[in-house]
């Protein structure tokens, strides 16, 4: 006789990923599924933010247009053009302040930092990256923030990505880390200045975001 499968375990329901905590390298923690409970609300906030400060493709100082579309919320926002990379208090595209960090964002970032061993985390900026199929982020380090003792907290939403996790020198060997919808990573301590990037997003459809991936990165910029 066939065993009856309880509805909660049936294949008609997505299998919930286990909520694990794994240290990638000293100070870098992957919190699998940490944002799953609030993912829908996070995406609604992203829409509200983008209605004030729209997603745009920034131009690097070298004159290349980035394939990732970006916007920000917070007291400052990350911006780039031919003049360089910097944090600004005003969105140069709208001439107005960046929208504030929603309480839901601040609360999630603080709880995640705490789970990674960083107490009292109060980010002043959340950079929001939007990836389409084929979009990538080339290997780089984040060095425009004054306070490098504070971790960066990143939240993955929508389509999965393969993360490139390098070392402190550009030529160091890198690892590939899969990041799924709802995963949160805390990048602190000696890991804060490592090289990292994202491989091109694969063609797929996510029930909440369609053919897109969003990434929230919380920072203490100043
Ligand atoms: C490790 N974003 O916005 S998040 C970025 O998925 C960025 O959108 C990627 O790299 C994304 O700058 C990766 C993970 C991340 C962010 C910052 C880091 C990892 C980091 C800073 C130091 C070390
Ligand atoms: Fe980065």
Would you give an account of this structure?
The protein is mainly beta and 222 residues long. It has a domain at 20-52 and 101-219: Sandwich (Jelly Rolls). The protein is 12% helix and 33% strand. The chain has helices spanning 39-52, 103-115, and strands at residues 21-25, 28-31, 69-74, 77-81, 84-88, 90-91, 96-97, 125-132, 137-140, 152-158, 161-165, 175-179, 184-187, 196-198, 212-219. The chain starts with 20 loop residues before the first strand and ends with a strand. The model is unreliable at 1-11 (pLDDT under 50).
Give the arrangement of secondary structure elements.
Blueprint: E1 21-25, E2 28-31, H1 39-52, E3 69-74, E4 77-81, E5 84-88, E6 90-91, E7 96-97, H2 103-115, E8 125-132, E9 137-140, E10 152-158, E11 161-165, E12 175-179, E13 184-187, E14 196-198, E15 212-219
Antiparallel strand pairs: 1-2, 2-13, 3-8, 4-5, 6-7, 8-15, 9-14, 10-13, 10-15, 11-12, 11-14
The structure holds N-(carboxycarbonyl)-S-(naphthalen-2-ylmethyl)-L-cysteine and fe (iii) ion.
N-(carboxycarbonyl)-S-(naphthalen-2-ylmethyl)-L-cysteine (MD3) binds at residues 127, 129, 137, 142, 152, 154, 185, 187, 191-192, 194, 196, 198, 215, 217.
What attributes does this structure have?
binds fe (iii) ion; 4-stranded antiparallel sheet; Jelly Rolls; disordered N terminus; 222 residues; mainly beta; 7-stranded antiparallel sheet; binds N-(carboxycarbonyl)-S-(naphthalen-2-ylmethyl)-L-cysteine
